[in-house]
Amino acid sequence: MSKEQASIHDFDLEIIVEYFSMLKRQGPGSTEQTHKALSFVENLDNNSKIVDLGCGTGAPTMDLAKHVPGKITGIDLFSKFIHLFNRNAESLNLQHKVKGETGTMEELPFEKEELDLIWSEGAIYNIGFKRGMNDWREFLKPGAYIAVTEACWFTNEQPKEIRDFWLDAYPEIDTIPNKLQQMQDAGFMPVASFILPEDCWYEHFYAPQEEAQREFLQLHAGNKTVEEFIGRERYEFEMYKKYSRYYGYVFFIGKKI
Length: 257
Ligand code: SAH
Prior knowledge:
Rossmann fold
């Protein structure tokens, strides 16, 4: 990559991080669905070690922290998110239980069989579901749990427009039975899977973005890269409105065998 390309790329990332820092959640989900997924997880106690990979500013992590014993480490690639994450933990008086660290889900700073629970909402796609399931498994104790959300097709066939959109964004998107098979192949017993209801997208993800987008465009008035980025976000929302019966996010909960 040339220097010029690298700086354009960095600028894009900065815009993305700044934009998503304005939002409570960086992915679709809700407090209710986080708790529902947690209801399938057993065997946690005060000594449990829990991690949230790709935690962003921590909306799901804090929901989790209010309901689990043990300690939670949130890991995210971007220090700006981690700064906000730790601030959010403090404002909820959860700083003794929850700690954010900058790092990558590609190289976890844990020992083999150290963890009791791996959580990851809307983030495993960054390394791919199959790779995440296989690589992360070794850090879990036998009998420990993993809970992730992942983009899935709800039907065997999809209209070309949405198929092309996803094959460009995340070619690993697949049907729920295929994802369950991948989870089992990685050495997990599939404990539960359920589709996130549409309010996780409309109310908790896209609605707050409409206000943030207006603000962001004003803040960066005349900036073509920002306009293009917001255009892409709006297109993604249009796709969801048009095709939400064909795809969505699915919670997968598995137990290490
Ligand atoms: N779990 C949060 C954020 C989801 S968005 C929520 O549900 O609100 C996906 C997150 O993954 C972003 O915060 C992004 O910065 C993070 N991410 C992307 N690549 C990563 C990597 N390699 N390691 C750790 N985090 C990563």
